[in-house]
Amino acid sequence: MLELVHLQVLSAALFSIGLYGVLARRSAVLVLISIELMLNAVNVNLIGLGAFADRPAESRVFGQILAIFVITISAAELGLAFAIILKLFRSRGSVNTDELNLMKW
Amino acid sequence: MNASLAFLAPALPACAFFVIVLFGRWLPRGGAPVAIAATAGAFVVFVITLLGMLSDGASAHSIRWFEVQGQATFTWGTVIDPLSVVMLGLVAFVALLIQVYSWSYMREERRFGWYFAVHSLFAAAMMALVLADNLILMYLAWELVGLGSYLLIGYWWEKRSAAEAAKKAFVTTRIGDVGLLIGIILLFKATGTFSISGVISAVETSQVTQPTLNWSLILIFLGAMGKSAQVPLHVWLPDAMEGPTPVSALIHAATMVAAGVYLVARLFPIFDAGSGILPMIAVVGLLTALVGAAMALVQTDLKRVLAYSTVSHLGFMMLALGAGSVGAAMFHLLAHAFAKAALFLGAGAFTHSTHQTDIRRMTGLLRGMRLTSIAFIASALSLAGIPPLAGFFSKDEILLAILDGHLGVVFLVFALIAVVLSALYTGRLLFVLFSSRPFVPEGDKAARGREGGAKAHAEPTPGESHAVPHEAPLLLLLPILILAVLGAVAGLLAFGWTGSYSGFGAYITLGHDKGFHIEPWLTALAFLLVAVALLQTWRSYISQSDPLRSATAFLAPARRLLERKLYFDTVYQWIVDRVVVTAAQVVGLVDRAVVNDKGIEGQGILVRYAGAAMRYLQTGMVYNYALGLALGAFFVAVVWWILS
């Protein structure tokens, strides 16, 4: 039987993997993908909490509605981010975050 | 025509000051006629006030200035009584004569108009001081007098010694002024009023506790000591000779130095109520009279002899106040003012003609400047106490006050010694000044390089010492003669001539002092001492057959002591150099090292170093920021978990 805690464990695992990816990957593309992973962890959390909420049935879809918003916005954000990465690659020949350190002291 | 117009007396010269300062350059002769007209106007106001007072009696007039709700009311006001009106007339009259004199004397000066402007300011301040009906107004005028003296003494500020003398006068009197201000505030705290009559009535009804009263009186007297050049605050006065001679006449006769005596006389009922205050004043006055007269004995500069003579006579006035006689003090102030103004103006005329300031090198004055010389001699003898000149009566009245008063016989003895000393220096001054040959006593070797500098070294060249001086122009001569005549005959005021006027002392104190009378043995004794002293000076300086010469050889160390001004200046210079300057350096160091370097610049340096250290947080690596973000979120989560 599927419980809320299973979904939350899944969400936490996804979030942690995503966080690790953001911190450890060097390629900007992989960092972005990891961020998507974290967003989806949040989505799982939202849907799970929404579904198992102690509320009337018609309001249990709120979590799913919120998740759809997140997916939409993350799609738009990804489009923007990949455009920036593309420009970055064209101007510097690399998307390695180690080398993107112009914004320092 | 009444006494409420008295405020115009200070107002007119004050207006003249502003007119000359602002528009002087477009006025004829730098605006000096405006100043003279204003002072003459002040004198007319005095006459009107006097007539008003004679017909209506004493009165007071004031308008409200501002009010601190429920605390105090501040007023501008004048008090019209014999004391203030006599002083007003004295100030206006002497200032007027000195301005007329200056018109001729200062003719060649570049800042002619400025001189008259400051002269007017000074006279205005002094008249405001004598008329003031409350202590705040009086203090204001008091400080303006100080400012005026500073500007006048430093009139030749291009000369370093003049600038220094002006500074010295200002700072020395300021030491006293601080006391005066604190004393006034103490009295205000105790009585709740600044009005002089209010304070007096509060003190007379014992609303002020004795310790408070004593402290405020001591502090107020400190102010009077500064302005009236009492030992040990007298040091500014001889140096004030650096100013133009008419300025010396003004400062020494009717204004400035008279202010302290007037202050004590005005507040006399309060001083009377203090315990042990009057004897203290008497001691200070006696000391000043002795020290001033002793120092006048060894000076060789004409104006400096007169300056120390002023110190001595101010001591006599304070002594009279300390003996409890306002009348004697004010009468001596009056007699001294006329005589001393005449002496200074005469000294100016002598210097004008001979281009000498050293009394030993002036010659031929009696032949060339007969009128001025006679006026000078008469005034000097008046101050020495030769009857029937005014100084004789005023000095007698002071001695009488000591005899009748609560002071012991010791005071009388020392006062007589001071009288003898003043006769001695007067004799020395007159005989050395008017002898027909240049007079450089053999003791001059010791005096070499002291004061006068190069002048003391130079032997008199025939050209400058044998030229017969010529009589001063009329504008210089006239004020001298008028003042000398007044200084000679003012003694008549001492006696009660009519039923309503029972002598100057009784009149000016509204009957508080008894009338003047001659105590035969005291008068004879004083006169005898003066005559013997004058005879002795004649023997030592003119007849050259001094029987006391060998007997007084032991006085040589005393003479050296006096020539070094009893080390007052030396000690003060040491204090300034060692204590004041060291303290200033310490404060300056603290200011630079702590306040400036650490406090102000330190903040800037701190921010700069903090920024330099913390900028390395900005690595530019995006995953560093992400780690920070993650750790921060984790930290917040942990905190939230612990707290809930």
Question: How would you describe the overall organization of this protein?
Answer:
The complex is a heterodimer of chains A (105) and B (644). Chain A has helices spanning 4-24, 28-51, 62-92. By secondary structure, chain A is mainly α. Chain A has a single domain, classed as Helix Hairpins, CATH 1.10.287. In chain A, helix 1 (4-24) runs antiparallel to helix 2 and helix 2 packs antiparallel against helix 3. The longest helix of chain A has 31 residues, at 62-92. Chain A is elongated, with a radius of gyration of 17 Å. The termini of chain A are far apart. The model of chain A has no long low-confidence stretch (mean pLDDT 90). Chain B has 644 residues and is mainly alpha-helical. Chain B is 71% helix and 3% strand. Chain B has 28 helices and 2 strands. Chain B has a two-stranded antiparallel ribbon with strand order 1-2. In chain B, a hairpin with a 3-residue loop joins strand 1 and strand 2. The interface between A and B is medium-sized, with 13 and 11 residues.
